Amino acid sequence: MGTLQDVQNAQNAQSVHVPQAQHVQTVQVLQHVPFPSKLELSASSKKSDWELFEQVWCNYEISSRLNSHPKSVRTATLLTCFGPNALKIYNSLDLAEHQKTDIDVVLKKMKEFCAGTVNETYERYLFNTRSQSTSETIDEFYASLLELSRNCGFGDLRDSLIRDRIVVGVRDPGLRKRLLFEKKLTLQECMEKGRLVDCALRGFHS
Questions:
Q1: Closest by alpha carbon to 177, among 159, 198, 149, 197?
Q2: Tens digits of per-residue pLDDT, 180-196?
């Protein structure tokens, strides 16, 4: 007959260790965050089309927490946002098989393709011939000039050149005259005076 110690040893030998289930953390994509609009790339504005889309996409990844998911999932989600022409460009990129699901590579290659070669002379021509339209506010005119200036290579002179273009291109001769009499006119002062004219016009037509 075995001793008490023998019985305990036998029970220990037959016991099975069951590990506790480990807590697995899953990352959910927030469904209430609006999905980016389809990327459509026009021949004349590929660069600006891509830059706007890339800005929206980066914000979407952060706000929806998609950036916490594997690169392959992020890339697949990105491609669902591509319109037909953008998808054709993606398919034509010189990518190795493993790069096709690497979102960092895909974003970089798409950006390089869309940037292309900028004709600075033509871009400056568009900027320098832009004038304020009849129904356009000063803020809308400024936003258009700001967009046009992006490919002009103005550097630190951008604000002063936008100011000059506003002075030349405003539709109101009286406002232009007042702006020209300012010896040290800044872009901010230029905008403030333009907004005052807009407010006066709105009051006149109301």
A1: 197
A2: 999 999 999 999 999 99
Q: Is 168 exposed, middle or buried (0-12, 13-18, 19+ CB in 10 A)?
A: middle
- Which of 115-139 are b and which e, b meaning 16 or more Cβ less than 10 Å from the residue's Cβ? eeeeeeeebbeebeebebeeebbbe
Q: Quote the DSSP letter at residue 185.
A: -
Helix segments in the chain, DSSP class H: 4-14, 46-64, 71-80, 84-92, 103-115, 120-128, 138-149, 158-169, 173-180, 187-205
Cα angle: 109, vertex 102, 117; to 5 degrees:
5
Average pLDDT of span 44-67: 91
pTM: predicted TM-score of the whole model, two decimal places: 0.54
Average pLDDT over residues 172-180: 94
Report whether pLDDT(136) > 90: yes
Q: For residues 39 and 83, is the Cβ–Cβ distance under 8 A?
A: yes
Which amino acid, one-letter code, is at 70? P
Cβ-contact 166, 142 below 8 angstroms: yes
Q: Are 85 and 45 in contact (CB under 8 A)?
A: no
